[in-house]
């Protein structure tokens, strides 16, 4: 017992420019420090309604079933799969990186058949291959794909892929964990059916919440399930009943017992059924980050991410560093930078952290040791971050790159 820590944990100050989390604005941190209230307090319920409306605006959707799942983006992913897929279903899964592979894993754990459409890492999903797979499997219930593949920095054509799903009578499950707030996510325009994201990327809230939105078409599929949703905690009918608007999806027994501080027989707010103790302060933070996104404007946020990417790209190229993904399908907010020949990529990352307090990401899977992943997401997409990253990289790489070239090139893009 004498060896237990007696001092509060004091995290070091970092510049977060990896694949997530991104830097969190002081406004969001301050919001999370506000007094905790009950998760069925009328004031908190009112804030939940605001979160729902702000998420609908961010997703560009009118979907009634829109809210934040209590858990990271992986929980949002699992929620979409376990609710829409039943044992024996056929699902076409697009795999062009780590997170497409996780989709496949979810399909198989649901007892369904995964028909994999595979593309090389660093390239977008090929709509031609998807159409061929859907044609070859006319009974496919779902098409699943990653809009912004975090492991490679590539964007796939969500509009085209969702259109193919509709044309073949399939639902579209779309991963927008790295795209929401950073590039256009147009749920209703695409015709996407179940879309999930994460709080810690371009929304720049701390990790731990997963925004999800589900179309009326997907709700109909959920209603017509032949089996129970395999996860009680992630059952969207139960979650929607808590977030409001779920009465048409699930009927609660008249004598329902509740727990977690809500006594049996107590009255919940109108249209709300107690489900779980929501992470109250974390939702304060997400609310504040969404308010900040609304204040900036979605289009302005998209433009800011593009502008910061243009400056970073100019600086990297001036230093002789290349990007993995072709420009036409390159994400502005997640840049996969090819490691120069003879450079120890892990040592570079370690020195960036030790010398400058700067975090960038390593490559995953097939790209391990071959790329650095530099994030320009949310509050990490600023001129300060771009210039600091290029200067730090130049210092660590030393004679391997032309000194002064990177920051100078980025400065010209940023400031003329």
Automatic annotation (TrEMBL):
Task: Give the record's keywords alphabetically.
Answer: Aminotransferase, Pyridoxal phosphate, Transferase
List positions binding substrate.
Answer: 373
Q: Does the keyword NAD apply?
A: no
Q: Supply one GO BP term.
A: glycine biosynthetic process, by transamination of glyoxylate
Where in this protein does the record put region Disordered? Answer: 254-273
Q: Where is the Aminotransferase class V domain?
A: 43-363
Q: Does the keyword Ribonucleoprotein apply?
A: no
Q: Which family does it belong to?
A: Belongs to the class-V pyridoxal-phosphate-dependent aminotransferase family.
Q: PANTHER family under this entry?
A: ALANINE--GLYOXYLATE AMINOTRANSFERASE, AMINOTRANSFERASE CLASS V
Q: What is this protein called?
A: Putative aminotransferase
What is the originating organism of this protein? Paramagnetospirillum caucaseum
């Amino acid at each position: 017992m004498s060896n237990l820590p007696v001092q509060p944990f004091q995290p070091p100050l970092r510049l977060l420019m990896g694949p997530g989390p991104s830097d969190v604005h002081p406004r969001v941190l301050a919001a999370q420090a506000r007094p905790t209230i009950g998760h069925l307090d009328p004031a908190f319920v009112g804030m939940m309604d605001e979160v729902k409306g702000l998420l609908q605006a961010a997703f560009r959707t009118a979907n009634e079933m829109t809210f934040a799942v209590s858990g990271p983006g992986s929980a949002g992913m699992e929620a979409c799969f376990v609710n829409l897929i039943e044992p024996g279903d056929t699902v076409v899964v697009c795999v062009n990186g780590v997170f497409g592979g996780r989709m496949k894993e979810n399909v198989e754990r649901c007892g369904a058949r995964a028909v994999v459409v595979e593309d090389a890492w660093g390239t977008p999903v090929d709509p031609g291959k998807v159409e061929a797979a859907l044609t070859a499997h006319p009974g496919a219930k779902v098409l699943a794909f990653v809009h912004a593949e975090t492991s490679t920095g590539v964007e796939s054509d969500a509009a085209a892929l969702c259109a193919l799903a509709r044309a073949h009578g399939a639902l579209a499950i779309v991963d927008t964990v790295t795209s929401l707030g950073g590039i256009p996510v147009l749920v209703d325009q695409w015709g996407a059916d179940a879309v999930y994201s994460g709080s810690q990327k371009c929304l720049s809230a701390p990790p731990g919440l997963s925004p999800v939105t589900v179309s009326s078409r997907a709700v109909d599929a959920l209603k017509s399930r032949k089996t129970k949703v395999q996860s009680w905690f992630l059952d969207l009918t139960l979650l929607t009943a808590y977030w409001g608007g779920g009465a048409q999806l699930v009927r609660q027994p008249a004598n329902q017992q509740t727990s977690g501080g809500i006594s049996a027989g107590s009255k919940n707010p109108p249209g709300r059924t107690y489900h779980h103790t929501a992470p109250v302060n974390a939702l304060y933070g997400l609310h504040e980050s969404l308010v900040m996104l609304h204040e900036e404007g979605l289009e302005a946020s998209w433009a800011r991410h593009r502008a910061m990417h243009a400056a970073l790209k100019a600086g990297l190229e001036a230093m002789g560093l290349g990007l993995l993904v072709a420009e036409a399908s390159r994400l502005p907010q997640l840049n996969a930078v090819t490691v120069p020949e003879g450079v120890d990529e892990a040592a570079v990352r370690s020195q960036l952290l030790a010398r400058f307090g700067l975090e960038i990401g390593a490559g995953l899977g097939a790209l391990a040791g071959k790329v650095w992943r530099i994030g320009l997401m949310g509050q990490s997409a600023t001129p300060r971050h771009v210039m600091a990253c290029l200067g730090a990289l130049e210092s660590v790489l030393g004679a391997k790159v032309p000194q002064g070239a990177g920051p100078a090139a980025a400065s010209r893009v940023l400031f003329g």
